[in-house]
């Protein structure tokens, strides 16, 4: 039997879900080592990242449950639960670091794919130069230098545009990440509140059921008393029913001794 189930069934359930995710992450990274295709590696990393996000959400929920139980458990139990939570956080961080390492290696592979071998000088340029005069060579050299300068300027502009786009994209991603984080935290809080409200509704339901039982018993007692009163009024000489105060028939008038004589 899970020791956490003795403390709280909700904690035991969350702990089981986190343990399942950790097993899935371990198996996923072992599978990732055997994948050679970059696209398949990227998809596997995305899947593992989703599991790590879910695990982070569950650890936050575990922490909220622990804080909710602080007032109802002894310090030793709360210390044990906090240590367990720290162990979960440490294990999750190890998988996050492993994911970053694989992502970096995958990015380096993609960069290598774009880097091709340098092109050599064309041989026909040399053949063409041998048939040209000095002035033509100078003009051709100046023309090539102008083209090179223009190409460098275009490259600078492209690089600057790329930097600007990258800066704007990074700022947008940062804002979206913060917004998504706030949304996730709000959803977690709503989910936690719904669970607490469900528990409260169940407790209220049990209390209402108890109150209804008491009211039914009182109703039966009142109905019985009313029935006895009715029977007594209809048949006041009925000796099977005990006299009810105020409804008993009047006692017979006693005669004095001297009135008899």
Write the layout of secondary structure elements.
Elements: H1 3-7, H2 9-34, H3 38-69, H4 75-114, H5 123-130, H6 134-234, H7 257-260
Helix pairs in contact: 2-3, 2-4, 3-4, 3-6
Short summary:
The chain is mostly helical and 261 residues long. The protein is built from seven helices and no strands.
Describe it for me?
- The chain is mainly alpha-helical.
- The protein has a domain at 1-113 and 169-196.
- 83% of the residues lie in helices and 0% in strands.
- Helix 2 runs parallel beside helix 4 (75-114), helix 3 (38-69) packs antiparallel against helix 4 (75-114) and helix 3 runs parallel beside helix 6.
- The relative contact order is 0.05.
- The model is unreliable at 115-129 (pLDDT under 50).
Shape: elongated
Q: State the oligomer.
A: single chain
- Helical content, roughly? over 70%
Average pLDDT over all residues? 77
Instruction: Decide which structural class fits the backbone.
Output: mainly alpha
Which parts are unreliable, with pLDDT below 50 for 5 consecutive residues or more? 115-129
Major sheet attributes: none
Using the CA coordinates, give the radius of gyration: 44 Å
Output the number of helix runs.
7
Please report the total strand number as a whole number: 0
Distance between the termini: 94 Å
Summarize the helix and strand pattern as letters. Answer: HHHHHHH
Strand content: under 5%
